[in-house]
Amino acid sequence: MTDPIAPRPDDAAAPDSGATAPPAPPAAAPYAPPAPGGYAPPPAGGYAHPSAAYAPPSYPSSAYVQPSAGAVPPPTYRQPAPGMPPVPTYGGTPYGYAPVAPTNGLAITSMVASLAGVVFAWTWVLALGVVVGVITGHIALNQIRQTGARGRGMALTGVIVGWIAIGFAVMSVLAVVIWATTAPFAFAAL
């Protein structure tokens, strides 16, 4: 590593007068300075229109022949090969995709009613919701089996949640009845 303060070999020939040489003046500009206002004046003859310099291309007249009336057959569209399904029309399903079966409405009703009955278990909705959920769930499962519609999972959810809620309600009523009959001293204080 060299010492940054130590003199360099090329500085040895420079006189030690303490003054440095002035920098060289900048080279002359290779272009003329702009006119006052920032833009150069237009050329003396003005600007020429671009169409004067370029001619439009010429095309051979025999490239396109006007057909006579009725000479052009209507366009033909590619037909499917024998044994293949027909070409789908506008709004149909594209190749490779089967139409989607609709979702059974009773399956949705079953799931919503059963879940609403459980959420509102502290009201009369429990009895109404879970009973509606169980009944519509069983009907939906039968319809789904016959038609192939979607929604089996929702119907099963409605049936299972409904039967579990009915089971809890029956067990709660039985527990209250058993407690009331075996502990008469609890009501004696009232």
- Helix-and-strand structural type: mainly alpha
- What's the order of the H and E elements? HHHHH
Query: How big a fraction of the residues is strand?
Result: under 5%
Shape summary: elongated
Number of helical runs? 5
Give helix % range. 40-55%
The low-pLDDT segments are none
Residue-averaged pLDDT: 75
Main pleated-sheet profile:
none
Q: Please state the CA-atom Rg, rounded to the nearest Å.
A: 48 Å
Q: Span from first to last CA?
A: 104 Å
List the helices and strands and how they pair.
Blueprint: H1 50-53, H2 105-119, H3 125-147, H4 152-182, H5 185-188
Helix pairs in contact: 2-3, 2-4, 3-4
Q: Any overview of this molecule?
A:
The protein is mostly helical. The chain has a domain at 105-184. Helix content is 41%, strand content 0%. It contains five helices and no strands. Helix 2 (105-119) packs parallel to helix 4 (152-182) and helix 3 (125-147) runs antiparallel to helix 4 (152-182). It is elongated.
What characteristics describe this protein?
single chain, 190 residues, mainly alpha, 5 helices, 0% strand
